[in-house]
C-alpha cells in the first residue's frame, strides 16, 4: 500500500511538470536568433547620417521575442532603431522567418577622423558594425574656393567660385563682404542673382560666385582680397589673390600739346617732347626715333629711356636741323617712342621760312642800287 502511494505521487508530480511544460510558455532554442546586414563598415563625413538595414533572423522552430540594443556607440552620437515610422526596442520573429529594422546613426559635426566600432545585440547575439569618419569634423562655417588666385590685365573680370558650408546644427544667415582696395568692385551672386547675404541650412552648403573688377588704372602687382561670410556669432573667411599683369600704353606729345613749329632752311630748332606711360604696367627700354624729309637731321638728348613707371612721364629734347636747300613751305616730321609692348607716334608740321640772311642781302642790294643812282646823278647830273 505504501508502495502504491509513492508511485502515485511520482506520477502526479510528473504530470504537473509535463502540463506546465506543454502549456503557453515558449521554448527558446540556444542560438536561434542571428542578425544580418550587407554593409558592416561604412565611411561617412562629419554631420552625415548613415542607415544600416538589419535583418533579424529566427533559425529556430519556435517564436523568438528578443530585445534589440545598440552598444558601444559614442555618447554624443544619436542613433535610432526603427521599423517604418516606429521606434523599435523589442522584436518577435516567427519560426524560420526574418524581420527587417533600420538603424540610423547620426554622426556629429564635431568629431575626430577615424574608426568608430559598435554592435547591435538581439538577445545573446551581437552584430559588429563600424563607422569610418573620413575627415576631421568641425562645428563652424567654412568658405572654400577651388582656385583662389587668378592673373590678368587690369581690364579683366576675375570670377571665383566658392562654397559656403554651414557645419552647425542650425540654419544660418550669412552677410557677405570683401576688404578690397579702394576703387575695386566686388560682387556676390548665388542662384543667378546678385546678393549681399545668403541663408544656408544646417550641415548644408551653397555655391557663391565672386566677381572682382579692378580699377582701370590699377598698377601691375599682386593684390590680396579677404572675403567674409559672417553671422551674428561667427564668421567664415577666405582670401583671394588677383595678379595684375598690367596694360601697356604710351603717348608721345609735347608739354603744351602743340605739334608744330617753324625753322629756317639750314637752321636748327629744339623741340621739347613728352613721353607718358598711359598703361598700368611699367615700361622699359623706350626707344626714340624720327622720320624726316630728305637731308634733314634729328638728334635726341636721350635716345633711350631705361624705365618709366605707370602713370609717369618724362621729357626729352629733340634737335631738328633743316636742309640748307629747303624751300619755304610746310614739311612733316614723325617722332616715335616705342617699346617691345607698345608704341606711339607724334606728327609734327615744320614750316620752313626764308632765311633772314637773304633778307639782309636783298636790303643791301637795294641800298647799293640807291647809292649807285645817287652817284650817277651827282657825277653826270650837272652836264
UniProtKB/TrEMBL annotation:
Its transmembrane ranges are 357-377
Report the residue ranges that make up the Alpha-galactosidase NEW3 domain in this protein. 44-122, 263-338
Keywords assigned by UniProt? Answer: Membrane, Transmembrane, Transmembrane helix
Establish whether keyword Ion transport is in the entry.
no
**What InterPro entries would the database entry show?**
A-galactase_NEW3, Ig-like_fold
Any idea what this protein is called?
NEW3 domain-containing protein
- Give the species this sequence originates from: Ferviditalea candida
| Lineage of the organism | Bacteria, Bacillati, Bacillota, Bacilli, Bacillales
Amino acid at each position: 500500500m505504501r508502495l502504491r502511494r509513492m508511485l502515485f505521487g511520482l506520477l502526479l508530480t510528473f504530470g504537473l511538470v509535463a502540463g506546465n511544460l506543454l502549456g503557453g510558455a515558449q521554448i527558446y532554442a540556444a542560438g536561434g536568433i542571428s542578425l544580418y546586414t550587407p554593409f558592416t563598415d561604412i565611411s561617412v563625413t562629419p554631420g552625415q547620417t548613415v542607415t544600416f538595414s538589419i535583418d533579424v533572423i529566427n533559425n529556430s522552430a519556435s517564436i523568438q521575442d528578443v530585445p534589440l540594443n545598440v552598444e558601444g556607440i559614442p555618447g554624443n552620437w544619436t542613433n535610432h532603431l526603427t521599423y517604418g515610422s516606429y521606434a523599435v526596442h523589442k522584436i518577435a520573429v516567427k519560426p524560420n522567418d526574418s524581420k527587417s529594422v533600420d538603424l540610423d546613426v547620426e554622426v556629429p559635426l564635431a568629431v575626430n577622423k577615424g574608426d568608430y566600432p559598435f554592435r547591435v545585440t538581439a538577445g545573446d547575439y551581437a552584430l559588429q558594425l563600424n563607422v569610418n569618419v573620413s575627415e576631421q569634423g568641425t562645428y563652424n562655417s567654412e568658405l572654400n574656393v577651388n582656385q583662389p588666385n587668378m592673373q590678368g590685365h587690369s581690364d579683366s573680370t576675375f570670377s571665383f567660385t566658392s562654397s559656403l558650408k554651414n557645419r552647425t546644427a542650425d540654419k544660418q544667415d550669412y552677410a557677405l563682404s570683401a576688404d578690397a582696395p579702394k576703387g575695386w568692385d566686388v560682387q556676390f551672386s548665388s542662384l543667378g542673382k546678385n546678393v549681399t547675404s545668403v541663408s544656408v541650412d544646417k550641415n548644408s552648403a551653397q555655391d557663391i560666385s565672386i566677381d572682382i573688377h579692378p580699377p582701370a588704372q590699377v598698377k601691375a602687382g599682386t593684390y590680396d582680397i579677404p572675403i567674409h561670410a559672417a553671422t551674428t556669432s561667427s564668421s567664415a573667411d577666405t582670401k583671394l589673390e588677383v595678379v595684375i599683369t598690367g596694360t601697356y600704353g604710351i603717348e608721345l606729345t609735347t608739354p603744351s600739346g602743340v605739334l608744330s613749329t617753324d625753322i629756317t632752311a639750314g637752321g636748327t630748332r629744339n623741340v621739347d617732347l613728352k613721353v607718358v606711360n598711359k598703361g598700368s604696367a611699367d615700361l622699359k627700354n623706350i626707344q626714340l626715333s624720327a622720320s624726316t624729309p630728305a637731308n634733314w637731321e634729328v638728334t635726341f638728348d636721350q635716345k633711350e629711356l631705361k624705365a618709366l613707371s605707370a602713370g609717369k612721364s618724362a621729357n626729352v629734347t629733340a634737335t631738328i636741323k633743316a636742309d640748307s636747300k629747303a624751300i619755304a613751305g610746310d614739311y612733316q616730321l614723325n617722332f616715335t617712342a616705342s617699346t617691345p609692348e607698345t608704341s606711339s607716334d607724334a606728327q609734327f608740321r615744320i614750316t620752313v621760312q626764308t632765311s633772314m640772311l637773304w633778307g639782309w642781302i636783298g636790303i643791301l642790294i637795294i641800298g647799293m642800287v640807291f647809292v649807285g643812282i645817287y652817284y650817277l646823278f651827282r657825277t653826270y647830273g650837272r652836264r
